[in-house]
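Saturday, quiet lab. Running sequence design on the structure tokens for the scaffold JK sent over.
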């Protein structure tokens, strides 16, 4: 059984190395689409490629593209080019927690999409800030999840035609399989918030990207309020970031009192070689670099469109004139075709009338007295013609 992980990443330099190394202990190959990172994420990925890990890095230069579309494209590639029997969609903050060969054994008994649950890890005052690996640094998790968020794992036969939904929490299928089976023996260690700097970058870029798409699609509800607080000031945002981690992705209106337990994640990725400390300062640098890249892309798009009002008005006028000319031409053709059809119909009516007239005359002749009286003479004539022919 060949397991292929797929991931879309953006600005995950503090986490990406640990994520790739750990996932490589579970999956046979990993497709990662770098969605225009402006930190060290891409350079770390290339270093891991050079080490020989079963990793393929793909660049996406469109800062406004939709995550579901990106991951669906990766899912198709995993099947078509990597020979995936199962596609494992993962975010860079999600770590598979299963016994050795446990995931393969769990998937071997089913041919339908399945779900695995999050197990959320939360920063605390006990974290060793000198540890560059967030997975070994953050050692406390929620005793119980505030909401049972799940991720979907997709078998080859389904992956060919299905569409991954937002966050890869589920898929849209042409022929749905009904309620998903939950793999209770497999969970995902979830590390969405690791530091104030990382969290601020995550929140700001998510909002910028959503706005650049013209507010199309959905922006996670868990990004709205943090963005408001970030815009109001860094000090309060940095002070409350760990509390946000306890309530991360909790739907509005859900009553939840978080409790923590010391339960270090069983990380199996080994030593980190390329991860650098995040700057211990306000994160405006990486956010501004992304904003500049976004503005540059939108500026080139506007330039390519030739966005001059006079030009656009002239193009619109030309298109309308062409539309009117095309409509008149088709109306003329339709009128001509209608005339021809009427002529053909009249010819058919006349032919039908002539056939009816000839038939009536033939029937009248066959039933006449002269036809019956001359029948012996016609028979004699036929006999004489046969004698002559001999």
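Result came back. Writing it out in full:
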């Amino acid at each position: 059984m060949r397991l292929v992980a797929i991931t879309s990443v953006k600005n995950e330099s503090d986490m990406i190395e640990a994520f790739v190394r750990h996932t490589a202990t579970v999956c046979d190959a990993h497709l990662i689409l770098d969605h225009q990172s402006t930190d060290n994420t891409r350079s770390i990925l290339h270093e891991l490629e050079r080490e020989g890990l079963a990793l393929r890095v793909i660049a996406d230069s469109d800062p406004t593209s939709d995550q579901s579309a990106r991951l669906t494209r990766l899912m198709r590639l995993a099947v078509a080019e990597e020979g995936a029997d199962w596609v494992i969609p993962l975010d860079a903050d999600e770590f598979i927690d299963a016994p050795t060969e446990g995931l393969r054994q769990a998937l071997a008994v089913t041919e339908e999409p399945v779900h695995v649950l999050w197990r959320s890890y939360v920063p605390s005052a006990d974290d060793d800030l000198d540890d560059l690996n967030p997975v070994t640094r953050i050692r406390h998790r929620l005793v119980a999840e505030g909401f049972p968020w799940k991720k979907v794992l997709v078998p080859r036969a389904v992956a060919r035609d299905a569409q991954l939904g937002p966050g890869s929490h589920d898929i849209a299928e042409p022929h749905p399989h009904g309620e998903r089976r939950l793999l209770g023996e497999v969970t995902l260690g979830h590390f969405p918030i690791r530091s104030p700097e990382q969290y601020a970058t995550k929140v700001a870029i998510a909002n910028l990207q959503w706005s650049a798409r013209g507010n199309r699609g959905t922006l996670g509800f868990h990004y709205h309020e943090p963005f408001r607080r970030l815009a109001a000031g860094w000090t309060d945002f940095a002070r409350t970031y760990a509390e946000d981690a306890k309530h991360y992705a909790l739907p509005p209106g859900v009553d939840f009192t978080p409790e923590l337990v010391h339960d270090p994640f069983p990380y199996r990725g080994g030593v980190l070689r390329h991860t650098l400390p995040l700057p211990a300062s306000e994160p405006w640098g990486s956010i501004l670099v992304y904003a500049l890249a976004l503005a540059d892309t939108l500026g080139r798009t506007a330039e390519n469109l030739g966005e001059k009002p006079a030009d656009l008005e002239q193009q619109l006028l030309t298109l309308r004139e062409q539309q009117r000319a095309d409509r008149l031409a088709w109306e003329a053709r339709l009128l001509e075709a209608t005339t021809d059809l009427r002529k053909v119909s009249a010819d058919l009516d006349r032919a039908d009338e002539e056939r009816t007239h000839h038939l009536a005359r033939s029937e009248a002749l066959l039933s006449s007295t002269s036809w019956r009286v001359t029948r012996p003479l016609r028979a004699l004539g036929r006999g004489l013609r046969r004698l002559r022919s001999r």
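Notes for JK: The first strand starts at residue 3 and ends at 9. The chain has two domains: 3-305, 309-379. Ask whether to fix the surface positions before the next round.
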